[in-house]
Every structure is written in C-alpha cells, then in structure tokens.
User: Which sequence fits this backbone?
C-alpha cells in the first residue's frame, strides 16, 4: 500500500470519527447549544452538525471506496479541509473567541478539555490541509506529465 493511499485512508478515518462525534452531539447533545445560532452561518448548531457530519461521511466513503481516483480524492479532501479553515477564519472575524465546538459534547464525555480538543482539531486540520494539498500538487504534476507525453506521441504520429 502506497503512502498516498495510507494518507487517504487515515484522513477518511479522521473524518468518520469527527462526523460520528457531530452526529451524536446533534441527536443527543446539549439542547441549549444545539438550538443556539452558529455565528458564521446564522443557522442552528444542530443543523450545521448534521449537515457537516453528513458531508464528512460522504467524503470519507468516497475516499475509502473510490478506486484509482487519487487525484479526485485529494481534491475533495483539500476542498473540505480548506472549507474548515475558512469556517475557522469566519469564527475569528465574527469575534467568536471560544474553542471551536466542532465535535460537540463528545469531548466532555471523554473527559477532554475544550482547549485540548481544539488544539487537537487544529492539528488534524493542518494534517488534512497539508497532506491533501501535497497529494493534489503531486498528482496534478503527474497528470500533466502524462498528458504531455500523450500530446507528444500524437504529434509524432501526425508529423
């Protein structure tokens, strides 16, 4: 198994775990938190957790079961990771100064402080952004080189 595939599978596992945490919190979390309004999107946290949890599961399933689609998987992972970065920027811009509650009440159930969970999530986010960006660039270059080789063969056969 290649390092690229290991990254894709590890990113999928991370997304499945964070999605599960979001969905558990959305269905059984603190009702006051779930009905409060997200400062970035202006919708209830419950809706945000359900929507983002569903998206994370969809991306994870695509990455686990997509065969020979490394470039597409890297693209989707990079899109999702950069969306998460933009969300965190949105939190900062709105003046939200609490740790991101991205995995909801699960941290409390596991006895992990919000601050430590937030640092862990930032590390995971950096892992996803750096890893998916690297794969995207590496596979983009490989794809372009392959296209150049095809173009030169066509030119040779024509001329």
Assistant:
């Amino acid at each position: 198994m290649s390092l690229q595939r290991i990254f894709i599978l590890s990113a999928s596992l991370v997304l499945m775990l964070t999605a599960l945490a979001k969905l558990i919190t959305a269905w059984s979390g603190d009702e006051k938190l779930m009905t409060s309004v997200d400062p970035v999107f202006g919708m209830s946290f419950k809706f945000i957790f359900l929507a983002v949890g569903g998206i994370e599961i969809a991306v994870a399933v695509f990455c686990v079961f997509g065969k020979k689609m490394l470039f597409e998987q890297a693209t989707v992972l990079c899109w999702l990771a950069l969306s998460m970065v933009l969300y965190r920027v949105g939190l900062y811009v709105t003046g939200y100064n609490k740790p991101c509650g991205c995995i909801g009440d699960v941290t409390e159930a596991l006895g992990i402080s919000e601050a430590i969970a937030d640092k862990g999530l930032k590390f995971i986010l950096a892992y996803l952004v750096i890893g998916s960006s690297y794969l995207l660039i590496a596979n983009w270059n490989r794809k372009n080189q392959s296209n150049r080789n095809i173009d030169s063969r066509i030119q040779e056969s024509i001329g």
